[in-house]
Amino acid sequence: MSVLNKRYFHSEKAAIAKLESIIWPDGPVCPHCGSKRKIYEIKGKSTRPGLKKCGDCRKQFTVKVGTVFESSHVPLYKWFQAAYLMASSKKGISAHQLHRTLEVTYKTAWFMAHRLREAMIDINPEPMGGEGEWVQADETYIGKLETPRVRNKYLPPPTKAGRSGPAEKRAVVSLISGGKARTFHVHSANAATVRDILVKNVRRESDLHTDESRIYTTVGKEFAHHRTVNHGRKEYVGKHGQTTNNVENYFSIFKRGMKGIYQHCREKHLQRYLTEFDFRYNSRDVEDLERTLSIFSGIVGKRLTYREPTSA
To answer: What is the pTM of this model?
Structure first.
């Protein structure tokens, strides 16, 4: 039986009950005062499904209050459908496709997708690696900068072939360890930026695996071992087993998604798309439904105000 036959994908009442079981596994909690003692359910023909009242602070609420769904007029079962489509699509699903499938406006679909990406953020990530463990690090470039960097007037103008080089593109740095990815959109992938990312996210006793890029030369000395592969010489696995193949595979999926599905992405939104690809990569070993429901575990305490959509 298809997972989409589950009632919470089609019934508002079932969707509310399912979300309550995820957010309140031990019973309702008032989002206003935190009380668990006197929570009353308000029933009536004209009452919103799942409406409750706190006996301590006397305020009304639903399970959506204090989450990314707060103030949303979209039925909750459509949120479940949108989350499933995003979680089960390996390279993502565009806002236009969501708009057609869910029968909502494009602006609504665009905002729903960004709210769900907000829910995918891990707000308390553990440091990666550890003693005897490796961490792969690499950088890539995608799309053109919306505000090109100011060139040194004393340097010769770039050739026609050089106009699309890394200096004119958006930089992305990714770390992979233990089958988990953590990716960052940075203004410039230089030694200082990469060091800041590595020391904040990787344990010093880890083995750092990179390519031959010089931006890792100095920071590599701060870790247990820094092992490199020379891609310029067609070396992809070193004599100590070092490689960056995992992070290269991640980049291949990310770029296919950005070029083939999303196509246009404003630079200010790029980190949200990276978060989406990280989320799917990190939960790739579980079933689509389990991955979908894990999105709803991250909706609490996050709000995202509406901004006019300018990209898919």
So the answer is: 0.89
**In the chain, domain spans:** 134-146+165-263
Q: Are 216 and 312 in contact (CB under 8 A)?
A: no
Cα–chain-centroid distance for residue 50?
29
Q: What does each C-alpha distance from 89 to 95, 114, 125 come to in angstroms?
A: 13, 16, 24
pLDDT given for residue 310 in this prediction: 47
3-class SS of residue 219: helix
Radius of gyration of the chain (CA): 23
The type of residue at 79 is W
One-letter amino acid at 30 equals: C
Domain 134-146+165-263 top-level CATH class:
alpha beta
Locus of tokens 């390279």: 91
Q: Tens digit of pLDDT for each residue in 55-100?
A: 999 999 999 999 999 989 999 999 999 999 999 999 999 999 999 9
- Residue 106 has φ and ψ, to the nearest 5°, of -60, -40
Looking at the predicted structure, is the pLDDT value of residue 15 above 50?
Answer: yes
